Amino acid sequence: MSDLAHAKAVLGDLIAFESVSSNSNLDIIDYIARHLKAAGARVDILRDPTGKKANIWASIGPEGDGGLVLSGHSDVVPVTDQDWSHDPFHMHEADGRLYGRGSCDMKGFIACCLTKAEDLARIATTRPIHFAFTHDEEVGCLGARALVETLHERGIRPALCLIGEPTQMQVIEGNKGCCEYTVTFHGQEGHSSAPERGVNAVEYAARYIARLLELREDLKARAPEDGRFDPPWTTLNVGQLHGGVAHNVIANHAVLDWEFRPINAQDMAYVKTQVAEHVARLLPQMQAVMPDASISTQTIGEVAGLEPMPENTARDLMFQLTGQNTATCVPFSTEAGLFQQLGTDVVICGPGSIEQAHKPDEFVSLEQMEQCLEMFDRLIERGLECAT
To answer: Residues with catalytic annotation?
Structure first.
């Protein structure tokens, strides 16, 4: 069986696991573990506190620091209310494309990793190759955050990391972060004819939003002149606002969802500080009428971006393996910044297009899968020493 045929078969198996973020991913993790164990890997399945989700950390070659991580996420977004031409959890091949939920985001890359695992084991003689496949990337990179913390606690510091998000096999050296929040406002209800006697949670949420919109404009002015993202500034979005029960009732409850995508750590800190200071101004006004009034924030996810670095051995390795000589930056978020926080050089490159991700009839092309497999072949031919 050719490598491409093998990868197609593995991808079909992976797509069949309905590993939507709201579901358990244990079955797909067990499947991946069996493949990696067959290639001689030491496999560690790391469950989350619920026991229903897990990351997999597997290593081939010597123990210790250094080496290369091949990383991807096992979860996919839902297909609810999407109009698919075929069963989204049964791979369909047509016109040189492999259709199915997660085909490009990012089970295609995982299939290539599993297909080449035994061959990769042959070059992991002086440095390890690690496989990191996580849960809940689509809902705040929850799995990767836990995995990176575990690696830090264990003193494991890989030298290089390849995140196989769909980039059409283009080399990416930077991505924006993603910070998501749900803010709950608790006020005091009352009759609308006496607004001063109540604390209108919707109105205070609106004041909060007004400050967010001011910050959105401030962030544009903070964009560096040589910014490489599109757009080059940190973006901010108000997602949902729910509150109130009737026209003539002072709303005692409101819930706001919002997010921002920082281009760097400085903007991330700036937004968080400005919002905290605004809450510190709003809350005393609410509590002057109702002492128990509150503004509470639930952090859904805070994931730092991948900041482009002048020196990046992982990027340079991908230049060698792909023949490219330039790298770009993307506005979408990945797990890359988390691995960068370990002191690891990180690059993003994988089969498929982000334009297909999360859409009905998601696909990865056979050409992209073949390019990914050929990239691994060049790594195997050259050995891990080419990364130093």
So the answer is: 75, 137
